[in-house]
Write a structure and sequence with these properties.
Elements: H1 4-17, E1 39-43, H2 47-59, H3 64-77, E2 98-103, E3 109-115, H4 121-131, E4 136-138, H5 139-148, H6 159-169, H7 178-192, E5 203-208, E6 214-220, E7 241-244, E8 248-254, H8 256-261, H9 264-273, H10 278-292, H11 294-299, E9 302-308, E10 313-317, E11 323-328, E12 334-337, E13 339-340
Parallel strand pairs: 3-4, 10-13
Antiparallel strand pairs: 1-5, 1-11, 2-3, 2-6, 5-6, 7-8, 8-9, 9-10, 11-12
Helix pairs in contact: 2-3, 3-4, 6-7, 9-10
This protein binds N-hydroxy-L-asparagine.
N-hydroxy-L-asparagine binds at residues 182, 201-202, 220, 222-223, 232-234, 253-256.
């Protein structure tokens, strides 16, 4: 039955935000006038080469699901990206444990958490989605499943990441101080590692294909030097990633504990369902974290990235410095500075 109150609320929100982002790089993408055009967006600067791999699939008329899988495999395999996949920083026991998830246009999803020794956890997550009746496999069970399905066992700890871990061990207290860890590793490792190009976090990727279908992927080695067994937001459907093909998709980066507590990516998608444009939805999800824990929020970074069904996109973070990459027919290497609550 038609709900007039809901309709008026949604219309009012749409109207209130109608001007948001129409002229800014971070809000509107191809297809506004001439129907939907494919687009792929992803977190941080390493999103640029990842998007380009995804774009090959989209430009050939491929499925968004294939695009996001191919895209995030790029940083997964790149040892210079020390926060995703191979070469990722280990936990405080020196073990590289990976978290990944994927979600398609039908609401199917798959996930692995705390998985060791596999170069492409995103592809294992996809296999969990497609070959099992389950959503999530963890730890040894995830590894066993991967090995049984033809994935190769590799050593994910590179000499550079091992060195950074040993450096961290000199001063590390064995206590899970989650809310400052993000920053301490930012200060510690990347600047000391020669040749390191990238120093940020999780890759979350969202794509819209030529058929107008959405998919998303999220993959990470998690918080550097975490407690062994700690799982962040990234492999948790609704926290690190959510896609609803009727509305849009969202993904997150930063301190996963706060994202999980607020079911962040699901919240962003639900806000878009109510009429919020992507950036406004991301901002409201960030504000929810800040309002609940203002003192904690001063110390941490959380960023959300969102893409709606029309191909509009946006982002918002607690702290400044959250960049995201965009690739479409016009540009394959756009890097956008996401807006943030704190600006210094
Ligand atoms: C996590 N959100 O494990 C991920 C990793 C990240 O800053 O982005 N860390 O919490």
């Amino acid at each position: 039955m038609f709900d007039r109150r809901k309709f008026l609320k949604a219309s009012a929100l749409s109207a209130a935000f109608a001007g948001v982002g129409q002229t800014k790089a971070g809000n509107i993408v191809a297809g506004m006038a001439n129907g939907i055009e494919p687009v792929v967006i992803s977190t941080w600067d390493f999103g640029i080469p990842a998007n380009q791999a995804a774009w090959k699939v989209l430009a050939a008329g491929g499925r968004a699901l294939d695009a996001v899988e191919q895209g995030v495999r790029v940083p997964e395999a790149d040892p210079k990206v020390q926060t995703v996949g191979y070469g990722g920083f280990p936990d405080r026991d020196g073990r590289v444990t990976l978290d990944s998830c994927i979600m398609d246009e039908f609401g199917n999803c798959g996930s692995v958490a705390g998985m060791e020794h596999i170069m492409h956890p995103i592809s294992v997550a996809r296999m969990v989605m497609e070959k099992t009746p389950h959503v999530m496999l963890v730890g040894d069970g995830a590894l066993q499943f991967a090995l049984e399905n033809g994935f190769e066992k590799v050593n994910l700890l590179t000499p550079e990441s091992e060195k950074a871990w040993k450096e961290w061990l000199k001063t590390a207290k064995y206590s899970p101080v989650m809310n400052i860890e993000n920053r301490s590793y930012d200060k510690l490792a990347p600047k000391k590692l020669p040749g390191n190009q990238y120093n940020h976090d999780t890759i979350g990727m969202l794509a819209l294909d030529a058929k107008g279908n959405l998919s998303g992927a999220c993959t990470t080695s998690g918080m550097a030097f975490k407690l062994h067994g700690r799982v962040g937001d990234s492999p948790i459907i609704g926290a690190g990633l959510y896609v609803d093909n009727e509305v849009g998709g969202a993904t997150s980066t930063g301190v996963g504990e706060e994202v999980i507590r607020n079911v962040g990516s699901f919240l962003v998608v639900e806000l878009m369902r109510q009429g919020y444009p992507p950036e406004a939805a991301c901002k409201e999800a960030v504000m929810r974290i800040i309002r609940k824990k203002p003192e904690t929020a001063k110390q941490i970074q959380v960023g959300f990235l969102a893409l709606n069904k029309k191909g509009e996109y946006g982002a918002y973070a607690i702290q400044k410095g959250f960049s995201y990459a965009v690739c479409n027919k016009q540009r394959n290497d756009l890097l956008v500075d996401g807006k943030s609550y704190y600006n210094s």
